Amino acid sequence: MKFTVARDVLAEAVSWTARALPVRPATPILAGVRISARDEELVLSSFDYEVSANSRIPASVEEPGEVLVSGRLLADISKSFPNRPVTVELDGQKVDLTCGSSHFSLAVMPLDEYPQLPSQPEITGTIDAHALAQAVQQVSVAASRDDTLPLLTAVRMEVSGDRMTLLATDRYRLAMREIMWEPADSSVEDAALVKARILHDVAKSMTAGSSVDIGLSKETQPGAASLIGFTAGGRRTTSTLMEGDYPPVRRLFPESTTIQAIVDRQVLLEAVKRVSLVAERKTSVRLSFSQGQLSLEAGQGDNAQASETLQAHVHGEDITTAFNPQFLIDGLSVMDTQYVRFGFTHPTKPAVLTGQKEVAEGEVTHFKYLIMPIRFGA
């Protein structure tokens, strides 16, 4: 095997393919990246029995062949090379990499022990790459990080016709985002549970193209019983789906709210960050909404305290509640509108945050963020 490839192209492809390699692989072979060179093209692949990645890039192939080498080491070396063409050649049990005056030799890993990659699922639909990345970022902040509740570490993806809905919750907050997509079959009705960490990484890494093809497969395939696949440009990735009954979280959103408050989102975000500096672990930031203003307070007793007052447009009765400051910051940070609307039914019931472009305009409801209040002294 021998080929020559542009340094930047190689470095980017290897880094992307190796991004999902396990830090502590179950077997050393899973730390490898497989390189296949033929027909003026390189195919780089990785697989850890949960996530597979496959990247195709152009190259000048003198001798076709296939080899398996340490993925992370190859990524580090590729990025360190000077900006000149890289020549890679298999020499016995070593792979020689030459770039200008730089030369490296990597040990070859046993290719026959490497697992077969799963097949890419048939395309179910296509979605705008940047819309998907934003939607996943908005929803994944609410996914649980607690592996003792594995289902809640997932994002639930629901597709119904030309609409896709993403949902995530950690029991204390709930995020929901609706986006439009182009299904291959307009009558499609399906749902899948994808680990939030994996989905966030995939969506973020596939914004180079204008669109992403998504495929769902519930059939048994090598390495997985059910898969979701993403394809964009020369990049392909799959992930096994989680199994189980996701809680019926949609019903947590109230049909209507009797109290609404509209606040400048960025101003509120910065204020919450400031006053929360004195909020000790597991304590709250208190919000008091009254006609024309919002008062924020944190800290209590003999400890440090902070307060700040902002302008607010309140419709309905005055209300005082309290939230985990980080949960509030997370929700405000992923919104993309100038204003945030709080919808309340009662001080001790969950509040619903939605976006609003202008004070006088209606709310933008494609993204909803529900957050549970906590006791003032908690």
Itemize the secondary structure elements and their pairings.
Elements: E1 2-5, H1 7-18, E2 32-38, E3 41-47, E4 51-58, E5 60-63, E6 65-70, H2 71-80, E7 86-91, E8 94-99, E9 102-107, E10 123-128, H3 129-140, E11 154-160, E12 163-169, E13 173-180, E14 182-183, E15 189-195, H4 196-205, E16 211-217, E17 227-232, E18 235-240, E19 259-264, H5 265-275, E20 285-290, E21 293-298, E22 306-311, E23 313-315, E24 319-323, H6 325-333, E25 339-344, E26 351-356, E27 364-371
Antiparallel strand pairs: 1-5, 1-7, 2-3, 2-6, 3-4, 4-18, 7-8, 8-9, 10-14, 10-16, 11-12, 11-15, 12-13, 13-27, 16-17, 17-18, 19-23, 19-25, 20-21, 20-24, 21-22, 25-26, 26-27
Helix pairs in contact: 1-2, 3-4, 5-6
Give a short summary of the structure.
The chain is of the alpha+beta class. The protein contains six helices and 27 strands.
Biggest sheet: strand arrangement: 6-2-3-4-18-17-16-10-14
Structural class designation: alpha+beta
Instruction: Tell how many strands the DSSP assignment holds.
Output: 27
Tell me the span between the first and last alpha carbons: 64 Å
The CATH C-level class name of the largest domain: Alpha Beta
Give the mean pLDDT. Answer: 93
- Which CATH architecture of the largest domain? Roll
Total number of distinct structural domains: 3
Helical run tally: 6
Q: What's the helical proportion of residues? A: 10-25%
Task: Tell me the Rg in angstroms.
Answer: 25 Å
Specify the CATH homologous superfamily of the largest domain.
DNA Polymerase III, subunit A, domain 2
- Percentage beta strand: 35-45%
Largest sheet: 9 strands, antiparallel
CATH topology of the largest domain: DNA Polymerase III, Chain A, domain 2
What characteristic shape results from the CA principal axes? elongated
Spans of at least 5 consecutive residues with low confidence: 220-224
